[in-house]
Automatic annotation (TrEMBL):
TM spans (from-to): none
A GO-annotated cellular component: extracellular space
A Pfam short name: TED_complement
Name recorded for this polypeptide: PZP protein
Listed SUPFAM superfamilies: Terpenoid cyclases/Protein prenyltransferases (SSF48239)
Signal peptide coordinates: none
Segments forming domain Alpha-macroglobulin-like TED: 17-174
Alphabetized Gene3D superfamilies for the sequence: 1.50.10.20
Superkingdom, taxonomy of origin: Eukaryota
């Protein structure tokens, strides 16, 4: 499902079906804000400024899906909005799955992984993707990540590297 939107006189086509299975305007706004900031458009650009205002308003809301929080944390990291980035990362840390010396995130209501002999469990692509966004949010801290953040990021990277398939790829293309 796609939508046509206008951006500074340019028509763009937005993909509404995101990997995380979250189909809402906040996730889409965060996703597009990330893309615009990675171009890089400055945070003073009217489209980016308006998008960040929407994300800041949404961040103050009560119920935010874990996937959306991960996207928002990275968007705020790119925009150098440290207070919002840290608040979201703090909230995400409370929802983290900490197991076997690694850290990751999963969608609410997802069945826990099953330990079977001779079977190497790999998480669905949405879990890999959202965990990667949290890792990016940690490593994009300004002016630089603290030693504490780097240590936590290493636990996240450990989990992500464990999700690689035998060919070195991942289930997610994100």
């Amino acid at each position: 499902k796609t939508e046509d939107k206008k951006l500074g006189g340019l028509s763009i086509c937005l993909c509404v079906s995101l990997q995380g299975g979250v189909d809402n305007e906040v996730s889409l706004t965060a996703y597009i804000t990330i893309a615009l900031l990675e171009i890089p458009l400055p945070v003073t650009h009217s489209v980016v400024r308006n998008a960040l205002f929407c994300l800041e308003t949404a961040a103050d809301g009560k119920e935010i899906h874990v996937y959306t929080k991960a996207l928002m944390a990275y968007a705020f990291a790119l925009a150098r909005k440290e207070e919002k980035r840290k608040a979201l990362l703090g909230s995400l840390e409370k929802e983290a799955v900490k197991k076997d010396g690694s850290v990751h995130w999963q969608r609410p209501g997802k069945e826990p992984e099953v330990d079977l002999p001779y079977y190497r469990y790999r998480a669905p692509s949405a879990e890999v993707e959202m965990t990667a966004y949290v890792l990016l949010a940690h490593l994009t801290a300004q002016p630089a990540p603290s030693q504490e953040e780097l240590a936590f990021a290493a636990l996240i990277a450990k989990w992500i590297s464990g999700q690689q398939n035998p060919n070195g790829g991942f289930s997610s293309t994100q």
